[in-house]
Task: inverse folding
């Protein structure tokens, strides 16, 4: 278990985010969906998750409110975080030079060169 925990730094940014940040949130969402599905029915749980039905109309309001708020706030956040990491990964893969190399080239280009004296 310790070796697995130490090896997390070797993962790509997307996989590390999915494992350490998104997985606990998805597990909470799944548990809320399962509890709501058992208590109120699976169609009601789905409708609450996607925002079709109001949690005020459910039989078990406490669980319905938790599922509804999670579906409203957490699901778009997970999708946005995942897409953000994918876009960052694509941008990083297109960079060919390190930032220090680029800055050194720019500094070298900005230094005026000596002109040979005229006749």
Result:
């Amino acid at each position: 278990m310790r070796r697995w925990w130490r090896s997390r730094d070797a993962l790509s940014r997307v996989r590390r985010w999915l494992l350490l940040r998104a997985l606990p949130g998805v597990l909470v969402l799944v548990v809320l969906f399962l509890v709501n599905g058992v208590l109120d029915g699976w169609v009601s749980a789905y409708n609450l998750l996607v925002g079709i039905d109001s949690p005020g109309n459910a039989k078990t309001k406490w669980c319905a409110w938790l599922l509804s708020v999670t579906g409203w706030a957490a699901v778009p956040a997970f999708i946005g975080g995942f897409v953000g990491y994918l876009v960052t990964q694509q941008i990083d893969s297109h960079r060919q030079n390190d930032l220090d190399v680029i800055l050194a080239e720019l500094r070298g280009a900005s230094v005026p060169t000596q002109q040979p004296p005229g006749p």
Summary: Residues 1 and 7 are 10 Å apart (CA to CA). The chain has five helices and no strands.
